[in-house]
Design goal:
Layout: E1 6-23, E2 28-41, E3 46-52, H1 64-79, H2 87-97, H3 102-120, E4 135-137, E5 139-142, H4 147-159, E6 165-169, H5 175-189, E7 194-198, H6 205-218, E8 223-224, H7 232-241, E9 246-248, H8 255-264, E10 269-272, H9 274-277, H10 280-292, E11 296-299, H11 306-318, E12 322-326, H12 330-333, E13 344-346, E14 349-351, H13 364-370
Parallel strand pairs: 5-6, 6-7, 7-8, 8-9, 9-10, 10-11, 11-12
Antiparallel strand pairs: 1-2, 2-3, 4-14, 13-14
Helix pairs in contact: 1-2, 1-3, 2-3, 4-5, 5-6, 8-10
The structure holds magnesium ion.
Magnesium ion binds next to loops.
Active site: 169 (proton acceptor), 327 (proton donor)
Pfam families: MR_MLE_C, MR_MLE_N
Protein name: Chloromuconate cycloisomerase
Length: 373
């Protein structure tokens, strides 16, 4: 049996700059915060991982500050002295120590997988069944809240072959203004690119039913999570009436959520995110349950750096069923990265890393430069 005993776990909060502001339904951010995890083994192997949220605790209740405390005070002490290669056993150990907190657990599991890949000398996609695809087309989130600026950004990205598909954040203005905004963007894109919208659970069922036909008439091609996470019945009724596919995000975090979504018929596609599911192993499990039920999956994002992006891309590269698109744009959306060898983008695609483990190396100068003091 291979053994890599965990000796020490370091956590560091960093605040990375953005190229431009980013508006969510609940907040606007101008920098992005991460908890960077380094797990050291007694043999001298170092695995890295990260956790990030969309900007504070509004999405899932966890924020970088709580993630650091949860890891330092509870999860790391449970892992010290254990064999880093026994990842399933360590996931159970973390669950026994702390309920919930999937973002914190995902950061640690990412570093464990990085160690395992390095020790076995394979990229992480080999741990999930091997390579099915090398790249995926990119969908870019427009989120400046200014149609002229959003359209200029879209034109720029299309002209440099970064992305030909777009998504817009909704829900921070009135429904009428949201619909007009979508109309303005669709007219500006003029059929050159697709546009979907993410409401982040901010509309009621009635509001959604009222405005869906107008959104479709403008040319929007998919609607993400219009209503509250718990309200899967409303989502099913909206889907029945919808002229466009419905993507579930906040509604689907656990394996049981996938079962319920299938039973009620409340989504055409599921947005997977490594942090809301508690890491790559559990995201893989969810994608396989979705596959067994004939539901496609989409690679969603909390706007990770190259560390989290490389991690998710390993699973996307291995799992056939994550084929509905991806928005793993973090490394080119950030104004600076935290690794020496960032994830690569070309020809409107993101590309998987082929080096052992995650395939990215932490830039220690940048770690100390961006460390929160
Ligand atoms: Mg979403």
């Amino acid at each position: 049996m291979n053994t890599e005993i965990i000796e020490k776990i370091d956590t560091t909060i960093v605040d990375l700059p953005l190229k431009r502001i980013h508006k969510f339904s609940a907040t606007t951010i101008n920098c992005k915060s991460f908890v960077i995890v380094q797990i050291h083994t007694k043999n001298g192997v170092i695995g890295i991982g990260e956790a990030t949220t969309p900007g504070g605790p509004w999405w899932a209740g966890e924020a970088v500050e709580t993630i650091k405390v949860m890891i330092d005070s509870y999860l790391a002490p449970a892992l010290i002295g254990e064999n880093a290669l026994q990842i399933n056993a360590l996931l159970q150990k973390m669950d026994a120590v702390a309920a919930h907190n999937p973002f914190s657990k995902a950061a640690l599991e990412m570093a464990l997988l990085d160690i395992k890949g390095q020790v076995l000398n394979v990229p992480i996609y080999e741990l999930f069944g091997g390579l099915s695809r090398e790249s995926m087309p990119l969908k870019w989130p427009l989120a400046q809240g200014n149609a002229k600026a959003d359209l200029e950004e879209a034109e720029h990205l299309m002209s440099f072959n970064v992305a030909q598909e777009f998504k817009v954040k909704m829900g921070y203005m009135s429904p009428e203004d949201d619909v007009n905004y979508i109309g303005e963007l669709c007219r500006g894109l003029n059929g050159k690119a697709t546009l979907c919208g993410d409401l982040n659970a901010t509309w009621s069922e009635l509001t959604t039913q009222k405005y869906l036909p107008e959104l479709a008439a403008h040319g929007m091609d998919m609607l993400e999570q219009p209503v509250a996470a718990w309200n899967r019945l409303a989502l099913a009724r909206i889907r029945d009436a919808s002229p466009m596919p419905i993507l579930a995000d906040e509604s689907v975090c656990s394996p049981q959520d996938v079962n319920e979504t299938y039973r009620l018929g409340s989504a055409d596609m599921l947005s997977l995110k490594i942090f809301k599911h508690g890491g790559l192993t559990r995201t893989h499990q969810i994608s396989q349950i979705a596959a067994a039920n004939g539901i496609a999956c989409y690679a969603g994002t909390f706007l990770e750096s190259s560390i989290g992006t490389a991690a998710f891309m390993h699973l996307v590269a291995a799992q056939d069923n994550i084929n509905g698109g991806n928005e793993l744009v973090g490394p080119i959306w950030l104004a600076d990265d935290i690794v020496e060898d960032p994830v690569q983008y070309k020809d409107n695609h993101i590309w998987v890393k082929h080096s052992p483990g995650l395939g990215v190396t932490l830039d220690l100068d940048k770690l100390s430069h961006y460390q929160r003091v």
